[in-house]
Design goal:
Layout (H helix, E strand, L loop, with lengths): L5 H15 L4 H13 L1 H24 L1 H7 L1 H24 L15 H13 L2 H10 L11 H33 L3 H24 L2
Helix pairs in contact: 1-8, 2-3, 2-6, 2-8, 2-9, 3-6, 3-7, 3-8, 4-7, 5-9
Length: 208
């Protein structure tokens, strides 16, 4: 299969599943959108995240991700911009946490906005750059065939699996949010998601 053995592909799938169970900005963004605006918003946010991942994979294939990773200044700028973006999202969510009078998902969540924010959240995540540069090439074996084709396949598999996981999370969180009839519980979830965004932003800014 494009130079990848079944064993190699199985090992790759196991590795990315382990990575995906670790909560991060993308997962929190999908959950926050689904809980607050409903299942549709969660699914659209997942599509935006997947689009961002596709851009990262394309950058690896073109060699752009390696250039960014090798430039300390550019990489730091992306890290700080990404951190600021997450903190801004968290502050905005915190300010609007008390807006929902009931446990039902709020109306007015724009699908276009959810997609765009999901895309930007992923693009400004420097860990995705490091993943693309350091992780994907480990599973490429030039002796087995075209390395570029292998990178494309590995990237496509990653995006597909991540999309499936995020959509499942979005659907589950959206249904859970729609069944909540206690407005206080809904506000608590919004505050938790907002605090998580701020915490992730701080961690991104000052973490290694």
């Amino acid at each position: 299969m494009l130079g990848l053995s079944i064993a190699a592909l199985a090992g790759y799938l196991a590795a990315i599943v382990v990575l995906m169970v670790t909560p991060g900005p993308d997962m929190m963004f999908v959950l926050a959108n689904a809980t607050r605006y409903g299942t549709r918003a969660g699914v659209v946010a997942a599509l935006g995240v997947a689009a961002g991942e596709a851009v990262h994979i394309a950058a690896v294939v073109c060699g752009l991700a390696a250039v960014i990773s090798a430039s300390p200044v550019l990489f730091t700028v992306i890290r700080w911009v990404g951190a600021a973006y997450l903190i801004i999202l968290g502050v905005r969510a915190l300010r609007g946490a008390g807006a929902a009078p009931t446990g039902k998902p709020e109306q007015g969540g724009s699908s276009g906005r959810a997609f765009l924010r999901g895309l930007v959240t992923n693009l400004l995540n420097p860990k995705m750059i490091l993943f693309s540069v350091a992780f994907l090439p480990q599973f490429v074996d030039p002796a087995q065939g075209n390395a570029t084709a292998q990178l494309v396949l590995l990237g496509a598999v990653f995006v597909a699996v991540q999309l499936a996981v995020d959509i499942a999370l979005g659907v589950g969180a959206g249904r859970l949010g729609s069944r909540m009839t206690d407005g206080r519980w809904s506000r608590r979830i919004n505050r938790i998601c907002a605090a998580a965004f701020v915490a992730l932003g701080v961690r991104l800014a000052f973490g290694s």
